[in-house]
Structure to design on (236 residues):
């Protein structure tokens, strides 16, 4: 972490809660303004969605070729729960590559986890010490019903691989993501989460009223306030 910007920001939430919309807003904010208001300068992203989507595509190709699917069953569910862990380990590997290349930037990591496949507690256990030592968490809070509504609204069947336009069938969204363990993890830890011996600061961006879709002033003001709270927790 520099004296002005986050080193690693983990952006987590239910699907369609507004994670990608926040990142899109940041991309369209001039860098000097980003530093001043949000403590984010030049940045890059590590999102596990392209990784898991590649697995879906590979399995479809293998099935078409007459071979067994490697990662998912015919309904698109992972064959083994440890594949969720592998995605987090892949995120760590991608981060190592960027550090090797000496990039001076904020790295924004993005993923969603539900209790059905181990929740955030299981995912956090696979974050590397290298990441945890510099990590701050921004959780975007929406109720399940809002996640369901926005997942339906954003889905473009012509672009199922798109970061901003992908979606899940209602039944799969409910099975995988309706229940989360975020509140359980944070109820006794109001500002920092204990993870593998590290005290990781976090802040919650409330988005039940959906300020992210419009990409307007309300999003900027709330994001600025929330990230400044998070920044102060990082300094303490």
């Amino acid at each position: 972490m520099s004296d002005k910007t986050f080193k690693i920001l983990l952006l987590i939430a239910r699907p369609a809660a507004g994670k990608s919309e926040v990142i899109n807003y940041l991309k369209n904010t001039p860098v000097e303004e980003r530093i001043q208001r949000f403590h984010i300068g030049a940045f890059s992203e590590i999102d596990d969605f392209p990784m898991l989507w590649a697995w879906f595509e590979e399995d479809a190709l293998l099935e078409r070729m007459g071979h067994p699917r490697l990662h998912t069953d015919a309904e698109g569910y992972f064959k083994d729960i440890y594949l969720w862990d592998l995605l987090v380990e892949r995120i760590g590997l991608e981060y190592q590559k960027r550090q090797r290349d000496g990039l001076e930037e904020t790295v924004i990591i993005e993923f969603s986890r539900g209790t059905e496949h181990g929740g955030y507690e299981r995912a956090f256990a696979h974050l590397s010490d290298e990441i945890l030592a510099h990590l701050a968490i921004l959780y975007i809070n929406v109720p399940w019903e809002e996640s369901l509504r926005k997942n339906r609204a954003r889905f473009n069947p012509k672009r199922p691989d798109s970061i901003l336009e992908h979606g899940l069938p209602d039944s799969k969204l409910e099975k995988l993501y309706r229940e989360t363990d975020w509140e359980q993890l944070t109820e006794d830890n109001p500002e920092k989460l204990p993870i593998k011996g590290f005290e990781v600061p976090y802040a919650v961006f409330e988005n039940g009223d959906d300020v992210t879709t419009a990409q307007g002033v309300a999003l900027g003001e709330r994001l600025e306030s929330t990230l400044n709270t998070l920044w102060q927790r990082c300094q303490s």
User: Anything to note?
Assistant: The chain has ten helices and six strands.
